[in-house]
Amino acid sequence: MNIVSATAAQLPRILEIYANARAYMRAHGNAEQWSGGYPGEEVVSRDIAQGNCYLCMEGEEILGVFCYFEGEDPTYGRIDGAWQNDRPYGVIHRIAVAAHRRGVASFCFDACYARCGNLKIDTHRDNFPMQRSLEKNGFVYCGIIYLQNGDERMAYQRCEDQKREEATT
Q1: Average of pLDDT values for 38-47?
Q2: Count of domains observed in the chain
Q3: What CA–CA distance (Å, rounded) separates 53 from 93?
């Protein structure tokens, strides 16, 4: 597996992966997250244009897609809880796998962590598979953040601080 930047030519397949992820969430008790066709063509096209849309590939096959950038995310400015640190961080949004193949999300998380070493991500309260994946991959639950529309999301962070803390306990 490897991580590459997405191109506009891959947009139809990316949108298909997101549609399949929405269907999977609905079928597994998460009816609210990514409702209304989110993320749609406009959001994904913007991610691609800004160089923030990445693909997990194996040969020519797209295994997963996600948005990644380094810098401030305005929705992470207020948290009911506490981040592990206030150092610069990378953000992962809109991660979806093409098929429920083991290890794709973990590979994506590790690739982002290798770039930054301090990651933040959020997920819906009903997205139990993502919560388990985050915890399995070294993310720590930090509290609740609020989207621009006021919706709550569970916020997680993975950083060197956590690795040191685990090593001493």
Answers
A1: 95
A2: 1
A3: 9
